[in-house]
Amino acid sequence: MQRIALASRPIGAPKDSDFRLETVDTPNPQAGEVLVELHYMSLDPYMRGRMDDAKSYAAPVALGDTMEGTGVGRVIASNSEKFAVGDFAFGQFGWATHGCKPDTQLRKVDPDMAPLTTSLGVLGMPGFTGWYGFHELGRPKAGETLVVGAATGPVGSMVGQLAKAQGLRAIGIAGGNDKCALAVDTFGFDHCLNHRDYEDGRALKAALQELCPDGVDIYFENIAGKTLDAVLPLMNQFGRIPICGMISWYNEGALGEHAGGTSDRLPKMWRSILVKQMSVNGFIISNHWDRFGKFLTSVAPLVQAGKISFQEDIVEGLENAPRAFMGLLEGKNFGKLIVKLN
Amino acid sequence: MQRIALASRPIGAPKDSDFRLETVDTPNPQAGEVLVELHYMSLDPYMRGRMDDAKSYAAPVALGDTMEGTGVGRVIASNSEKFAVGDFAFGQFGWATHGCKPDTQLRKVDPDMAPLTTSLGVLGMPGFTGWYGFHELGRPKAGETLVVGAATGPVGSMVGQLAKAQGLRAIGIAGGNDKCALAVDTFGFDHCLNHRDYEDGRALKAALQELCPDGVDIYFENIAGKTLDAVLPLMNQFGRIPICGMISWYNEGALGEHAGGTSDRLPKMWRSILVKQMSVNGFIISNHWDRFGKFLTSVAPLVQAGKISFQEDIVEGLENAPRAFMGLLEGKNFGKLIVKLN
Q1: What is the interface pTM, i.e. ipTM, of the complex?
Q2: What local confidence, expressed as pLDDT, does residue B255 receive?
Q3: How many domains does chain A have?
C-alpha cells in the first residue's frame, strides 16, 4: 500500500518537500479490525492546521506520520462481525491507498443511496458543517440576507442552498468567474462576487453593499481575510456569525500572527459585536456527531431528489494529493476536492 | 431648574469645559405630562458614548442639549391620571434637577420597597444588565469559573453575586485594593485582582491563571483593555463571553482606533473563537425591557432580604456631576455612582 507522510512542517504555504510518498506493508486486520481498499479520500482545508505544531483543538500530525484525513472504500479483509468483505466503509484512514481500523471507528456506507464520493462532501463532514452551522448558530429567518465565502465549496454551497430553501437572500463570495457562475446557476445564490476582482476588503465591501441594501443578517464564516473585512461593517443589529473556518489565513502562520493588517483591529471588532448586539459562535463539527443522523435523514433525500446539488473536483492518484491540497489552499479546486485512489 | 448641557465633544477623556451648567425655566406639564423634582440621577459609563458624534446604537447628544441620563424623584405637578403629586417616578430626565415627561415614558417607583437610589443601580439598569447577561448569555453551570471586571460596580457586583449563588467560582478584577476587599468581603467573590498591580495584560494573565487552574468558562465583558487581554487566552472550550461594555476603551476614541496594540490581534482573536468554540454575544440592555419585570420579581426580594448586597457612591449636587463622571471613567468611584440633587 502507499501512503503520504508529513516530511516537514511548512512555514506558510506547504510545498512538495513537506510531503513524502511511501510504500509500506499492508496491515492484516486484527480482532475486530477491518482492512479497507480506499476508493476515494477527502482533501479539506482543516488539514493545513494539522501540519503545524501549534496547540489547537486537535493534535498535530507527527513528523513522519501519515497525513490525517477521511476516506471511503471497499472492505477487502475483515476480522469483524459488523463488516463483510465487499461492504463499503468510511473512516479516518489518512492519506493512503489502504487502511486498517477497528470496526468501532468505521461507518458503513450504502453505495446505492448516493455515489460513494458524496460521503466525503455533500453528505459528509463538509455538508454537515454547513447544515449544522446554518441551522443551529445562524438561526435563519425568511427574508434575511446571508453571506458565505467559498460559495462553491462543499460547505458554502450547502449553506447557500439551505438559505434559499428557507427564503433568505444568499450572496456568495468565490474566487473566479467560473465559480461565481456555478454559484448562481447551479446552487441558486442570488449573486456571487469574485473576490479576485477586488483589491482589498474595502473595495469588496463597496460591491457587497450594493447587493445587500438591507445589510447582512448572517455571515457564515469559513474564509476570513478580505471577505471578513468586507462583511463586518455591513452586519445588521442582532447579526449572527457562525465560524467554522478561516481558510484564507491558514497559510499565514499557526496563530494568524502574519495575517494581520497594519493596525490593531481587535478593539473595533469587539465594539462592533457589542453595538450591533451580534452573536459570534465558533464551532468544530467533530463535537456534534450526535446530530449527524438527523442531518443525513434530512438532507440525503434532498440530494437523491436533486433538490440539493453538489460539485466535485476529482483528482486521480495518491501521488497527486499534495499538489491538489496546495491548490485547495489557493482556491484552485472547483467544488469538493476528492482524490480517487483505487 | 438647573441642567448640564454638552458644551463640546471631548477628544479622549472629557474635561470640565465639555460641560456647561445652566439655569433654565422649569417647564409646566402639558396634557399627560408629569413634572418631577429629581432626588437622584445616575452616572453610567455608557454616557461617554453619547458625547461622541460617531454612529452607534443610540443617537449622540446634540451640542447644547442636556446630557442624557436617568433619574428618580418626586412628582411635584401632574397633568396625568397615572401620577399624583407625591408619587415617585423614574425616567430619562437627563442631567437636571427637574424634568417634565409624558407619563408613558415614566415608571412608578415604590420608595417603601427599597431605597430610591436602588432604582438606579442594583434594581435598575445596571443590575438588570448583570442579571440578563449572566443568565441569558452566560448560560452558567455550577462548578464553572466566571471572571468579571469592574467587580464592585453595579454590573460586576450583581454578576459575581449571582454566580456565587449558582455555585460558580467568581473571580473579580477591580482597580484598587479597597475595591478588591469589598468584592471579596461584601460581594462574596472568591478572589479579586487589582489590575493596577499589573503592568499589562500578560502580567495580569499570569496572576489570573493561578486563580483559575481550570480555565475560565464565562467572561462577562464590561471593561475590555488589559482585562480582555488577560482573560482571552484562559478561556475554556465552549466558553461564553457576554459583552455589555468596554469601559477601559471609552476614552480612546469613538471607534476604539487608538485603543489597539502594536500588532493586529483580530486574526488571533477570531481563531480563538473558532478553536475554542466560544460563544461571544453583544447585548444592549435597552432592547430587553420585556424581561425587566421578571428581573425585579426575582431580584428585589433578594435585595430586601439582604441576600444581594450593593454599594453606592453618592455625590452631592448637579454641579459636581461632570467631575464625578470623569472620575467614573477612570474608576475613581466606589460602587454605583449617583448624584443627589434635591
Answers
A1: 0.89
A2: 44
A3: 2
